UniProtKB/TrEMBL annotation:
It comes from Algoriphagus aquimarinus. Belongs to the UPF0337 (CsbD) family. Residues 5-54 form the CsbD-like domain. SUPFAM superfamilies: Hypothetical protein YjbJ (SSF69047). InterPro entries: CsbD, UPF0337_stress_rsp, YjbJ, YjbJ_sf. PANTHER family: UPF0337 PROTEIN YJBJ (PTHR34977). Transmembrane segments: none annotated. This is CsbD family protein.
Length: 61
């Protein structure tokens, strides 16, 4: 799964991430075009995992 696929399925993935990590908010998961690095940074801070680990988890969803 590449970033284009993640972006295309973001609404579904966002809901599943919120189920798995209850402390994530809509603000944490807001995707803005051109601000992918900010999104990854917010996720890394909240979840405590690297970008690669988060991507691996998303692939499993």
């Amino acid at each position: 799964m590449n970033f284009t696929e993640i972006k295309g399925n973001w609404n579904v993935l966002k809901g599943k991430l919120k189920q798995q990590y209850g402390d994530l908010t809509d603000d944490d998961l807001t995707f803005a075009e051109g601000k992918e690095d900010e999104l990854w940074g917010r996720l890394q801070k909240k979840i405590g995992k690297s970008k690669e680990e988060i991507i691996d988890e998303i692939k499993k969803i």
